[in-house]
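Subject: mismatched residue count in predicted assembly?

I count 572 residues in my input, but I want to confirm that the predicted structure covers every chain. Input:
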Amino acid sequence: MNGLKQHYAKIIVWAILLTIPYWFTYIGGYLGLANEIVIYALAAMALNFLLGFTGVLSFGHAAFFGLGAYGTALTIKFLVPSTLVGLAVGVLTATVAGMVIGALIIKRRGVYFAMATIAFGQLFFFIANRWNSVTGGDDGVGNWHRMPINLGFTTIPLFHNSLVYYYFTLLLFALAVGAMGLLLDGPFGRSLMAIRENERRARFLGINIELHVWISFVISTAICGLAGGMLALLDNFVNPRDLRFDLSGVLVVMAVMGGMRSFWGPLLGAAIFQWLREVLSSHTPNWQTYIGIVFVLVVLFFRRGILGFKLSTVKS
Amino acid sequence: MSLLQIDHVSRHFGKLIAVNDVSLNVEPGELRAIIGPNGAGKTTFFNMISGFFPPTSGTISFDGENITKLTPEQRVARGMARTFQITEIFPELNVAGNLRIAVESAAGFRMKPWLNGAEKKLVADRIDELLTLGNLTTSAHDEVGALSHGDQRAVEIMMAMALRPKILLLDEPAAGMGDQETYDVSRLIRRVHREQKLTIMLVEHDMRVVFNLADRIMVLAEGALLAEGTPDEIAQSDVVQQAYLGKEADLGKEAA
Ligand SMILES: Nc1ncnc2c1ncn2[C@@H]1O[C@H](COP(=O)(O)OP(=O)(O)O)[C@@H](O)[C@H]1O
Ligand SMILES: [Mg+2]
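Triage response: the counts match. Full output below for your records.
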């Protein structure tokens, strides 16, 4: 579509992400914040694969983020003390849940689909909170930490070196985002965009809407689970309060604010959101209100989000 | 054997009987028109044939197979394509982008993550063919939302053609068009009908289009089949005159 523009966007984004640990402190940031931005950006981009590029709104992605986080943490704490195994179990858990829930709700459309995702999101939060013996209930999952990765000839000091962990998350981010970008550039991605643009036309071109939306949903939940696992590893802790259903709303806000029709929009949205949260929450307990105001302003003045193009086109 | 065989098909919406016990055969290579006043059930009839919704009763067979319960995408796979009374395209994509989605779907690539060189070439060539067939080459890179009504319709018809259908269903292809556009779209329909020997079924309000193009005409009124025959037979049918075409003068004027 916008080949050259896309290309420049890619170069700029990667230049920033690769170098940010070395200059973020000069503008008031710190490594942990950068790392959170990368992680939430991945979750928001995963959500946006479904929202922005398939045209399907989920308000329950916190559940998959949470499953990734709990899956990773509980595996490392109780089963196998390995970062990679933990992450793999986290992603697998989120993916399987995405497959099952997706299959149950895929026939619903529009707001009914979104409502069903909220219901499942709440269900997972309820379980996490009540199933004390495993999930630690409201206390979360602590007393574990991410493990170094042993490559035989050398060891990657993921735990003791936060900078190494940052680049580890960036590598996973690159793989996941690269996979999404590749898909969106090919026929399958175009089928998804066809569904977004005009479901009726897509169906009468022979595209199986339910199957395509289901696959898109599963991809989205899998990557969201990966992001959740990465956050648990960053904190060496799972805090159920971070995974409440309002995280689902936050991910939607990030995607919409940054620009859900643009590939990198949710990354920008996540950066703005996390940065505002950082700055505002030290001054006021009502930081969410202020972020809400920013969100409303962005939506009013850039109907397609900050990185959105074509401010005028109306589509129903 | 008939390509499309419709047996005693009805569709109810609550108390309303939109289509009432209609039977019809369409032969290969035929261009069949359906006319009837607004609300006669023409679109409903098309919706049942294309699988938008199932009939309340009756059966539909296509190419010797009972397709009454198949989904739209299953019917597409068997060679059925349609356009809609209100054009259904991808307004934010350009003409080539619209055709690309249709071509890739038709080629069975719609689930593929990526294409190899040969597949890409196949798609590109087919898009070029369709651009030429639809007289759309010069607007290939224009966003379709910005095109004229007539060109949007041409894009929609070419997307349907991309599926290499055995039958093409056109619901009021000239709806809301001026004289020139109506003329252009009629010519396009005639061209795909003749050049590709394509079976076409079309609903149309504009009598010029219908009497120009159709081999046979079926008249629907209040959901029921009123008459069926060649354009001459329909033009001279007393039942049709009374029930649908109204005053003789009207038909004479519109068909001229
Ligand atoms: N999905 C639907 N639900 C309820 N009523 C419908 C539906 N589709 C069509 N109808 C009704 O069926 C009748 C026939 O409509 P339609 O097939 O659109 O007529 P035509 O295309 O000949 O103008 C109308 O009275 C219309 O209101
Ligand atoms: Mg109609």
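Chain B touches chain A through 33 residues (CB under 8 Å). Marking this ticket as 'not a bug'.
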